[in-house]
Amino acid sequence: MYLNKEDCKNFFFMRKWQLNREFEWTVENRKRIAEKSNTIMREIACTVEEAKKQEAILKKRLADGDYFVNDYEIECEILFAYWDIFENYDKDCGTRLFLEEQSTISFSIDNPVQLDKELNWNIEIFPEDWDPNMYVSYAVHELCCHNIWSLQDFLKISEFYSEVNIRILKNKQRL
Fold first, then answer.
1. Cα 110 from chain centroid (whole Å)
2. Domain residue limits, the chain
3. Radius of gyration from C-alpha coordinates of the chain
4. CA–CA separation, 33 vs 152, rounded Å?
5. Which residues have C-beta within 8 Å of that of residue 124, sequence separation ≥ 6?
6. pLDDT confidence tier of residue 27, bands split at 50, 70 and 90
7. What DSSP assignment string belongs to 73-141?
8. I want to staple 122 with a disulfide (CB 3.0 to 4.6 A). Which of 134, 136, 145, 154 is the partner?
9. Separation CA 164–CA 160 (nearest Å)
10. What integer best gives the mean pLDDT of the chain?
């Protein structure tokens, strides 16, 4: 049976709610969340650095009056891969695209919230006794609080991919 997007969302949010209720806030789990958060933060910084290098090239082309480049947009993304859940649920209800959408964190190269270590995002689902020295990045907050992923899912994510997407607007042509 294939589910529409709203049914998928409801199903996975209920699943997340149930799993988060059962989540054990052990010292080890807290450390694993903080370690993964730091790894993601480092990757965001590398991705932003690469995007800024590409932006410098595009700015130079614009300044030089490049024939093709009139304007551009740069977007960075990280896609988190938790293959077990992709495979288990996609067979049953055709949710692959929905799961990929819910597994992608997008950010701009000028978005300070993604790289600001002064802002600790240990809120909402994180317990009140969370150690403030254990940093939770905005990406982790977004993935676990605003998307369908439970804390258990987050700890099982085995890999992620970074992308820098560039859209170039060519000068318009008269026909």
1. 16
2. 5-170
3. 19
4. 10
5. 141, 145
6. very high
7. EEEEEEEEE-HHHHHHHHHHH--HHHHHHHTEEEE-TT-GGGT-TTS----TTS-TT--TTS---HHHH
8. 136
9. 14
10. 83
Is the pLDDT assigned to residue 91 strictly greater than 70?
A: no
What's the Cα-to-Cα distance from 127 to each of 26, 44, 100, 103, 158, rounded to whole Å? 11, 25, 28, 23, 24
- For residue range 130-170, what is the model confidence (pLDDT) as tens digits? 887 788 888 888 888 888 888 998 998 888 889 999 998 87
* Beta-sheet strand order (sheet of 159-170): 104-107, 69-81, 159-170
Q: Tokens for 39, please give them.
A: 């790894």
Listed in sequence order, the residues at least 6 apart from 167 whose beta carbon sits closer than 8 Å to its beta carbon are 72, 73, 74, 75
Residues 115/52, Cβ–Cβ less than 8 Å = no
- Predicted TM-score (pTM) of this structure: 0.81
Q: pLDDT by residue (tens digit) across 53-77?
A: 999 999 999 899 888 888 889 999 8
Cβ atoms of 94 and 124 closer than 8 Å: no
Written as one letter, the residue type at 38 is N
Q: What whole-number distance in Å separates Cα of residue 143 and Cα of residue 102?
A: 8
Percent of the chain with pLDDT over 90: 28
Q: Which two tokens stand for residue 24?
A: 């054990």
